[in-house]
Sequence to fold (257 residues):
Amino acid sequence: MGKSFTKLEQVKQWDKANLQESSFLGLDTRVVLITVLCFVAFVVSVPKYEIKSLIIYFAFPVFLLTASQHHLWPIAKKILLVSPFVVLMGVFNPFIDKAPLMEVFGITITGGMVSFLVIILKGMLSVSAIVILTSLIPFHKICGAMAALKVPQAFVVQILFLYRYIFVLVEEAGSMQRARDLRSFNGRGKGIQATSRLLGSLFIRTLDRSQRIYRSMLSRGFTGEIKMTELRKIGLRDYFFVIVCVSFFLIVKIKVL
Fold:
């Protein structure tokens, strides 16, 4: 339990430190967001048997990490956290697509094996780009950029609230788990039935707390719209960054095709 609270405090400290950081390389947040989304779109559009282009695309996340001087391990831990879901998406491909594609050291490589590897690489590239983006730029600035790009206000507000109050939910769940551990002996009280009751209680407490938060926001003049800080005008450096990055993505895709 102590470890989970320690990790939560580390996340909060990391987020507070992020609030004081400027945008990546002095670029406009909208430009970085659009570039990362373009990168994800190009990665997803790679054919299912094409590995070479995905390997080349790894240059972009490496560039982001190098330019921002972020440590690799915190990013890698978040990618590893999502990796089981990525593996689950393509784990059955080798059993479905058994058509032979090549032979390496006497071992027949089927289309399912290659497509499975492509899915893993796509997942790693997409997740790494998003994780690095959220590590480089404070989350409220990303939401402000989304609002400036005419993303629906309701969607932006929901994401902001989710990010803001997910820590409250984690703390609530942690306190309930600690209370259960203090009242259980020899593993009693930790079965499926007790856990389901605990989750139901957490859900009810979450609804009750959300209603109290919403009433307090209404009393302070909340109208369903959050005013974002105005972003600066996009300059030549921003246009140059987007053009260079998107040109690189296009060249890799065209050369492969």
